[in-house]
Amino acid sequence: MSKVAARLSKDFVERLSWEKNEPDWMREHRLRCLEIFEKLPMPRFGPDLSALDLGDLTYYARPVDPVRRWEELPEEIRRTFQALGLPEAEQKALAGLGAQVDSEEVYRSLLNELRAKGVIFTSMEKAVREFPWVQDYFMKIIPPEDNKFAALHGAVWSGGTFIWIPEGVEVEIPLQAYYRMQTEGVGQFEHTLIIAERGSSLHYIEGCSAPRYSRTSLHSGMVEIYAKEDARVRFTTIQNWSKNVYNLNNKRAWAYAGASVDWVSGSLGSKVTMLYPTTVLLGKGARTENLSFTFAQEGMWLDTGARAIHRASDTTSRLISRSVVQGRAKSVFRGLVYVASEARGARAHVECSTLLLSPEARTETIPVINAENDEVELGHEATVGRVSQEQLFYLMSRGLDESQALSLIVNGFVSPILKEIPLEYAVELRRLLEMSFEGAIA
Amino acid sequence: MAALEVRDLHVRVGDKLILRGVDFALEAGKVHALMGPNGSGKSTLALALAGHPEYQVVRGQAFLEGQDLLGLLPHERARAGLFVAFQHPPEVEGVKLREFLRLACSERGKGFCEFQKAFPQALRRLRMEEFKGRELNVGFSGGEKKRAELLALYMLRPKVALLDEPDSGVDVDALRLIAEVITEMAAFGTAILIITHYPRLLEHVPPDEVFVLLDGKISDRGGPELAWKIGEMGFEVVRR
Ligand SMILES: Nc1ncnc2c1ncn2[C@@H]1O[C@H](COP(=O)(O)OP(=O)(O)OP(=O)(O)O)[C@@H](O)[C@H]1O
Ligand SMILES: [Mg+2]
User: Fold this and answer.
1) B104 vs A389, A393, A400: nearest CB
2) Those residues with Cβ within 8 angstroms of residue A399's Cβ, 6 or more apart along the chain or in another chain
3) Where are the beta strands (DSSP E) in A268-342?
4) A6 pLDDT band (50/70/90 cuts)?
5) Cβ–Cβ gap B103/A389 under 8 Å
6) For a designed S-S bond to B167, which of A93, A228, B130, B201 qualifies (C-beta 3.0 to 4.6 A apart)?
7) Residues of B with Cβ-Cβ distance to A383 under 8 angstroms
8) Residue span of the structural domain in which B208 resides
9) φ and ψ of B158, to 5 deg
10) Residue A391, SS3?
11) Distance B37 CA to ligand 1 centre (A)
């Protein structure tokens, strides 16, 4: 594959598949996805996507070749990863780490100890080539018919991670992936597929960032998680995309009997985000928790949400969101709970709170709770607060400047979610918040 | 030099001129009292000096140890050593009392170690140990809010403290406690102004000087006996 490919076409998709040396099933899958993509309409709800020109994106870019050691990376990207603290985190806090720039992975490591236990942590491409059974899992949770961006993703996906945790293996330290969009006007479409076998456990963390350009970029990743019986998976994403990025993702999990799936999402950047992590509770006693934190600033529209589909008895879901909106920005939270008739004894709790920091800030919460049987316990709470002039002045009159006062209030507001975020990320989040305030006030 | 000197202060709220030429000075280590009818502008005075954006100073000057106050932002005034205990402290959800005081103290130049020691000690002094983990004023009763303001005063050790009705709504024991803390702060060197309606608190903390705010000005000043007189006979005494 040449390093850059601009146009989306059947020819491009075939070439991509050929260059990646894929089995026939994947080439056919891609082509089928492309056809579906062409037929499906743009999303009919949520943010205005009219400024996103799908004809004007670079669909594939490989500005950096893969390396085995950080030092071998080109200067600029090496410095970026260093500033993000990746090599250090790899040493201190992670069981494995993958890093991707634009369309391809550039670095990956995994502790030998986990390799010895049979854990697979590899690039999605390699998994597709080497394990025929991946076909039984790939885009089976989110089929291309689901929505236009799922179909687009299926056609042009590149990069991402495949994780398989053998039965009973508990991965105690997190695995992490970092996604960087480097080329101006690029589209990034990584695919993450996690299979946690019976009784296993995993905490996976994603981080994302991009330098700021004037041209629009698109990030449209997909995450599929299979948590088999009694498995526990926690998936944390902290995205800090720059304000020229459209971040339109699909993330969905299947939780079998006794399994638990937790989504933790921190959305701090992007121009537009559409993100609704979903868990389908398939087996008795499955649980899911969805913690979302969004910080929408000037010019941004963060349209997020969480969905829990209860399909079995005694299943539990907790969807919690905290949004902060500053300047002319908008945050929307769509909390959807569906309880099927067979899901007796299901329990669901939806809670969203928003804090508005400016008079122009906008917010909306759209809960949809739909139960097909009576033996359920459902709770819903929504609150919208404003930081009052009185509160701010009170804090300032004790010696805090405006940005200290604001970030103290905001930190307090989001602390129920920050508690759930791994320490290094919570620190990073706080730092990002403080920087944003300084920027917004200066 | 006075700890705080206010000259010819005129303050407007909205389109209403509330203070029309207030003059007074506070001395370091001394206790002063400000009395005046409801709506006479006592809180306006405190808030304007603290830099509240809605209280607009249209004329006059204020100096803290000779430094011009009115050109400073609210947090700069605090860092310079000014403290206001609010008549109605707002509740700030999500913000821990401890975290707030830690930040405020560090802006007053106090290190973390010092705070670690001083905070539990201050909690004990104000008999507020059980408030250690609470959110700032959230769910506090009226009297508890007053004590929490005094807790901040005790931690911050300002040069000038304007205490807006620290005694309203507090029980007998708390009143005595508040009086003790004020006395201790004055002994430490803080210039204190107690805004109050009743001589009750002043009986525990005899003021060195009493000011009366009437018709937008300091209409009278005198020793503690002025406070006792007003307590007995009301503001008719000074109106004449
Ligand atoms: N934000 C405001 N908008 C309009 N009027 C105001 C505002 N704040 C204060 N005032 C008015 O200014 C006057 C002085 O109020 P202030 O609160 O300073 O009185 P005070 O002497 O502290 O009274 P009290 O003894 O009842 O506490 C009152 O008439 C009040 O209604
Ligand atoms: Mg008042």
Assistant:
1) A400
2) B75, B78, B79, B103, B104, B107, B108, B156
3) 272-275, 278-281, 287-296, 301-310, 316-325, 330-339
4) low
5) no
6) B201
7) none
8) 4-90+158-238
9) -75, 170
10) helix
11) 11
pLDDT(A386) > 90: no
Residues of B in contact with A397 (CB under 8 A): 50-52, 74-75, 77-78, 84
Give A182-211 pLDDT, tens digit per residue: 999 999 999 999 999 999 999 999 988 888
Q: Is B154 on the interface with A (CB under 8 A)?
A: no
Range of lowest pLDDT (A84-98, A101-115, A150-164): A84-98
Within a domain: residue B48? Answer: yes
* Residue B97 resides in a domain: no
Here the tokens at position B180 are: 């003790």
Residue to test with chain A: of B100, B134, B159, most A Cβ within 10 A: B100
Q: Say which amino acid occupies A50.
A: S
For an interface test with B, which of A293, A323, A396, A397 has the most B Cβ atoms less than 10 Å from its Cβ? Answer: A397
Helices (H), chain B: 42-50, 74-80, 97-107, 112-125, 142-156, 172-188, 199-204, 224-233, 236-239
Region A68-83: what's the mean pLDDT?
92
Interface check for B152 against chain A (CB to CB < 8 A): the answer is: yes
Ramachandran region of residue B148, left (φ > 0), alpha (ψ -120 to 50) or beta? Answer: alpha
Greatest CA separation found in chain A? Answer: 69
**Is A42 exposed, middle or buried (CB count within 10 Å of its CB: 0-12, 13-18, 19+)?**
exposed
Q: Are A81 and A109 in contact (CB under 8 A)?
A: no
- Smallest CA–CA distance, residue A366 to chain B, in Å, is 24
Do B90 and A396 count as a contact with CB atoms less than 8 A apart?
no
User: Mean pLDDT, chain A, as a whole number?
Assistant: 92
Contacts of B77 in chain A (CB under 8 A): 397
Residue A400 touches chain B, beta carbons under 8 Å: yes
Length in residues, chain B: 240
Cα B197 to Cα B133, B182, B213: the distances in Å are 33, 17, 12
CA distance A163 to A119: 7
User: Which CATH number covers residue B177?
Assistant: 3.40.50.300
- Provide the number of structural domains found in chain B: 1
Q: How far apart are CA A274 and CA A40, in angstroms?
A: 17
Q: Please give, rounded to a whole number of angstroms, the shortest distance from the CA of B137 to a CA of chain A.
A: 11
CB B149 within 8 A of CB B174: no
A226: Cβ–Cβ under 8 A, 6 or more apart, which residues?
Answer: A137, A141, A194, A195, A196, A253, A254, A256
Q: Residue B145: inside a domain, yes or no?
A: no
pLDDT on residue B112: 76
Convert the pLDDT of each residue in A144-190 to its tens digit: 999 999 999 999 999 999 999 999 999 999 999 999 999 999 999 99
A395, A404, A412 member nearest B93 (Cβ):
A412
User: Which tokens hold the place of A101?
Assistant: 């720039």
User: Between B74, B100, B152, which is nearest A393 by CB?
Assistant: B74
pTM, rounded to two decimals: 0.82
Which of B54, B93, B135, B155 is the best substitution to test chain A (most A C-beta atoms within 10 A)? B93
Interface of A with B in 273-312 (CB under 8 A): none
Contact B107 A399 (CB under 8 A): yes
Q: How do B4-13 and B16-26 pair as beta strands?
A: antiparallel
Domain limits, chain A: 4-275, 389-442
Q: Which residue has the tokens 């508690």?
A: A419
Using an 8 Å CB-CB cutoff, list chain B residues near A415.
94
Q: How far is the CA of B189 from the centre of ligand 2 (A)?
A: 25
What are the average pLDDT values for consecutive 10-residue runs of chain B, which has 240 residues?
Answer: 96 96 98 96 98 96 97 97 97 93 90 88 96 95 96 96 96 96 97 96 96 96 95 82
